[in-house]
Structures are given as structure tokens and as C-alpha cells.
Amino acid sequence: MNARKPVILRAKKYSQGYLMVSRVIPVDDFDLVIFGATGDLARRKILPSLFRRFHAGQMPDQARVIGAARSEHDEASFRAFVLEALKEFARVKGAKASDYKAFVARLDYVTLDARGTEGWEALKALCGRGATRAFYFSVGPSLFEDLAKRLHKYGLAGEETRIVVEKPFGRDLASAKALNAALARHFDESQIYRIDHYLGKETVQNLMAVRFGNMLFEPLWNSQYIDHIQVTVAETVGVAGRGEYYDRSGAMRDMVQNHLMQLLCLIAMEPPARFEPDAVRDEKLKVIRALEPVGPKDYVRGQYGGDEDHASYFDDVGDEDSTTESFIALKAHISNWRWAGTPFYLRTGKRLKNRASEIAVVFKDTPHNIFGDDAGRHRNILSIRLQPNEGIELGVTIKEPGPGGMRLIDVPLDMSFAEALGPDGEDVPDAYERLIMDVIRGNQTLFMRDDEVEAAWRWTDPIIAGWEERREAPLPYEPDSAGPDDALMLMHRDGRRWREIKE
């Protein structure tokens, strides 16, 4: 076991007069191999995130990044490829041309066949040091077992080896079980990191800090005080460019089963005994297992149409008979003492009016209004914004200024990270930065466990099977809207309203 390295503290004096400290936590020397290194995910997210960590001083001097893919590259052409990707996607304040060159000098490349023998001996030669080894499977799930098998065959897997697998992790319970079993044949569960980038978002982690680090909220975090909770993940883009994948998946499999499920777990889980991987994941698992089945009256599926400015879903996927949903809204209930009677409303969709991700905790009205009917109805709402402007907002009721009697209004107590944290808040690390470094550190807290994935599919599968058996077609909705009108009724019939989708 390597000795724990010291934390580097960088103090900065801000204009407000207080001192903020940014922390760069060194990690042990490592080799990171990216399978699928020339793919879109590596180009847009993985490699830029590594450069940002390099620029922040978090990569040890001997750490190396090795690309591996079917594409015919030599070392020079791969470095040129990465340099172009960094210029496009790695926007780093203060980065110089020399920084980019210094990072790509850390890169190696191997042309490799995941199902054959080409490149494996060369990869073994590059990974000959005693450093921590991490293998990022930035490829389709069909290659997971082939890669895992060859890592063992060529002597690349040891106790310090970690593998990172991307979603989709199965398309139903049966396939998820098969994938888990395939990986378990070659690696221990402690070595498998199932990544969901939503868990790496700074605001998502702040959700846990707000809940469990403040006495103000946790006593109120239950059905006695909370009326309902809304989780919205809205996108303005369509599915063009990934239509073939998306049409086999849909919003339920692509977003609800993983991203929104993870957010739901963090909102609803009981306080873990400690902030450790299995303690946190045990509590998340309890939430999933407590979810009640969702019937047809409690969900709405939609599919975006087209107009002069936007292609329709049919056009984007090339199938006018498609019944795959690009939008879903549903009401979920958790059967436990904390949440009995408090509904959770989840919605996500493509081609909506704004890009926004928000968790809104809507508290109940005061039990008795002492100010009369003229004061109106008021309630507190805690809004946690995940994107694009990350931050937390608490709606508080105050008296309207002026001599006009006791008229009440709701005002926000707003903490955007960019404003509250000064210069450091303007450059919040990307989710992949945090998660990749957690892999190197061997910290699985923000990664899904095998039983957690299977439990999520166990809840999701009957919902999908139900609408497939009934041959339900998704409802059309206009682009740049809030989704189908029936989604509004999902809440209106409960006497509630969706929050506006706004940036």
C-alpha cells in the first residue's frame, strides 16, 4: 500500500476580503489506457478532462496516458489528433501552447484489436511499470468481456488494476446480469468502476453536503414537511448523429434508468454511517428497492415533431414508424417511513425549450396562515441547479416592501457557484475530471455497484414491458416546448405544477 500523499493547498485572496482555498490532491503514479481513444467520448470528455487535471498539477510526472483503438495511428499522428481535440473541447483558463505540448508528450498509442491478437503485446510492453493501472472501456458493451479476458491473458491485470465501464450497462435486467457476470469472471467487484458522469457533477455532490452537512435541512427532509420533489433534465438538442443508438434505447433507458435514478437515490436515501463507498451505495440500493411499480396513468411518453427550423424525430432516426420516446415524465413513490405520501416527479426529454437540469424540493405550505387571504399561498422551494448555471437557490417568503399592509412575496436566496466562490467558482471541474481521479485513487463512492444496476433495471423493465405490450405510441410535442401537454396534466390532477424549464 502506498503512503498517503500530502494535500496541496493553494490559498487565494478574493475581493470580498475572505480567504478561499482550492485543493489539489496528488494521486499516485498511474498508467491510464483508453480503449476507444479515437472515439467521440474520448475526444470530447476523457482526454480534455485529463488535460485539465494535468494543468491543475494533479498528474504525477511519470503518469502516462495510452490510447488504444482500431484506427491506424502512430505516436505522432495520435498526439496531433489529441491536440486538435484539446483545442476544441479543453477550454482551460491560463493554459499556454507549451502546456498542451507538454501534455501530449505524455501520450502513447497502440493500434489494437479488441477481439484478436493485434497490439496486445505492444500494450503490455508500454504498461510494464509498477504503477496503478486503469483501463477505460470507452467502447460498446459488446466488447467489455473481450477486453477483460485479454487483459488477463496478456498479464495486464493485477490487484491494483481498475477498469472503467461506460453506460449503457445493459438494456434490461437480463443483459445487465450477463454483463455483470462477464466482468465478474475476470475482475473483483472492487476493481470495476461503472461510471455515471452525473454523479461527478459538483452540484450533485453538494446535494449530499447540503443534506448531511447542515442541521437546517435534514430534520425537514421527509414527508411531514416536503410536499413533492421534481427532477428535470431537459435538453435542446435532438438525436441527430446518434439516432441508431437512441432509437434502440429511448429516454427511459438512456436517462431515467441511470442518471435520474442516481439523482433520486441521493435525494431520498437515508444518511449513511460514513462517507465510504459501500456505506453510500447500500443506502442508495435501499431507495431503489423501495420504489413502487409505476402504472400507465403515472407516466407520459412523448416524441418531438419537426418544423421549419428543426428536423423531426422520425427524420433524425430515419424511421417514420418509430415508437421510441424522446421524452418521458413519470410519478414515482418510495414505500418507506421517510417518504410515504410524497411523490417524486421525474422528467427528461430532447428538443425542449431550454437546456436545464434541476432538482426542486417543494416544501409544504405553513399549517396555518396568520396573514389572511390577501397574503396568498406561499411555500419554500429548494432548487439545486445542475446545469448550465450550477448552484443552489432557496425560495423564502418575506413581506413585500412598502406601507401596503402585510403582503407576502417569495424571494430567492441564490448561491451560484460562480458568484459565491469567486474565481474558483468560474472554473468548476468537469464531472469526468473528478471521476477519473477517483478511479486512480481507488474510491468507488461515486460509481454504481453491480446490485445497484440490477435493482434499477428490475424497477424499470416492467414499465417498458407494459407500454410495449399495450403498443402505446408516444405523444407528439412541438420542438422548443416543455413536452406533451399530457405531461402537464400528470401534475395538474394532483393540484401541482411543473416548474418552468429555464436556463
Short description:
It contains 14 helices and 17 strands. The protein is an alpha/beta fold and 503 residues long.
Topology:
Layout: E1 8-13, E2 19-24, E3 30-35, H1 40-55, E4 64-69, H2 75-89, H3 97-104, E5 107-111, H4 120-126, E6 132-137, H5 144-153, E7 161-165, H6 173-184, E8 192-194, H7 202-212, E9 226-234, H8 243-268, H9 277-290, E10 299-304, H10 313-317, E11 327-332, E12 344-349, E13 356-363, E14 381-387, E15 391-399, E16 408-416, H11 417-420, H12 431-441, H13 450-469, E17 475-477, H14 485-492
Parallel strand pairs: 3-4, 3-6, 4-5, 6-7, 7-8, 9-12, 10-17
Antiparallel strand pairs: 1-2, 9-13, 10-11, 11-12, 13-14, 14-15, 15-16
Helix pairs in contact: 1-2, 1-12, 6-13, 8-9, 8-13, 9-13
List keywords for this structure.
503 residues, alpha/beta, Rossmann fold, Dihydrodipicolinate Reductase, domain 2, 9-stranded mixed sheet, 6-stranded parallel sheet, 14 helices, 17 strands, disordered N terminus
Written description of the protein model:
By secondary structure, the protein is an alpha/beta fold. The chain has 2 domains: 8-166, 3-Layer(aba) Sandwich (Rossmann fold); 199-492, Dihydrodipicolinate Reductase, domain 2. It is built from 14 helices and 17 strands. The protein has helices at 40-55, 75-89, 97-104, 120-126, 144-153, 173-184, 202-212, 243-268, 277-290, 313-317, 417-420, 431-441, 450-469, 485-492; strands spanning 8-13, 19-24, 30-35, 64-69, 107-111, 132-137, 161-165, 192-194, 226-234, 299-304, 327-332, 344-349, 356-363, 381-387, 391-399, 408-416, 475-477. The strands form 3 sheets. Strands 16-15-14-13-9-12-11-10-17 form a 9-stranded mixed beta sheet, with helices on both faces. The chain has a 6-stranded parallel beta sheet with strand order 5-4-3-6-7-8. A two-stranded antiparallel ribbon has the order 1-2. Strand 15 and strand 16 (408-416) form a beta hairpin. Helix 1 crosses helix 12.
